[in-house]
Design goal:
- The protein is an alpha/beta fold.
- It contains 5 helices and 6 strands; from the N terminus they run H-E-H-E-E-E-E-H-H-H-E.
- Strands 2-3-4-6-5 form a 5-stranded mixed barrel.
- Strand 3 and strand 4 form a beta hairpin.
- Helix 3 packs antiparallel against helix 5.
């Protein structure tokens, strides 16, 4: 009798565990369907949750194709980043209607973030300075004969490098300006940070174009 009771209890526990596991799986696989407006207005309520969202692709990143933006009819837009299983977003997607399934992510910009950003810029500036000094030392060792033979080529290279340096200097200046502006915005918040929201895309599909006469 006692042995039979133990078997019955064991069987009940097994069934309970199976039901619990199934319940967890359903919760884990649950996907919330939202629209662009809901995301723009209430993204904070969906952080780290899996959502499904539809929109028109208005821009894809040319460098690497790891980012794109979708919009609705009201010109509100949502940033989409490529997850591990999404190689890239092709530029041919621009203008297409897509359905995105992904996880809502929050990026918090605070003083610590800005300080680390500034340090990274300064490290890049120091590295560039070292490279310039190394190039200068190397150029001083070039013989007069080599200089004469490659004067035109050297001039072209110098102009190219100067243009490249001007571009980097401009980008760094813009970065410092962004940091300054963000610091002012943060100072006006009660939380001490600014949040930016995006969706990390797990998978997506283009909506089929409906036939005109259908």
């Amino acid at each position: 009798m006692e042995e039979k009771m133990i078997k019955n209890v064991f069987a009940i526990l097994v069934v309970a565990l199976v039901l619990f596991a199934c319940g967890n799986k359903e919760t884990k696989d649950e996907i919330t369907k939202i629209d662009v407006n809901e995301f723009v207005e209430n993204a904070v309520n969906y952080v780290d949750q899996t959502v499904s969202i539809e929109g028109t692709v208005i821009h894809t990143c040319e460098h690497g194709g790891k980012k794109m933006f979708i919009s609705d009819d009201e010109s509100r837009k949502v940033k989409i980043t490529a997850g591990e299983d999404v190689p890239k977003f092709e530029q041919t997607l621009e203008g297409s209607d897509v359905i995105i399934e992904g996880v809502v992510r929050e990026l918090r910009i605070d003083e610590k973030y800005l300080v680390e950003w500034e340090m990274k810029i300064q490290e890049e500036e120091a590295k560039e300075k070292e490279e310039i000094e190394a190039d200068t030392t190397k150029s001083e060792e070039v013989t007069e004969e080599m200089e004469a033979n490659s004067a035109h080529h050297a001039e072209d290279e110098f102009e190219h490098e100067a243009e490249h340096m001007d571009k980097e200097s401009h980008e760094q200046h813009n970065a410092y300006k962004q940091i300054e502006d963000l610091r002012k915005q943060i100072a006006e918040t009660e939380e001490g940070y600014i949040s930016y929201f995006s969706i990390e895309c797990l998978k997506f599909e283009e909506k089929a174009v409906e036939e005109e006469n259908k």
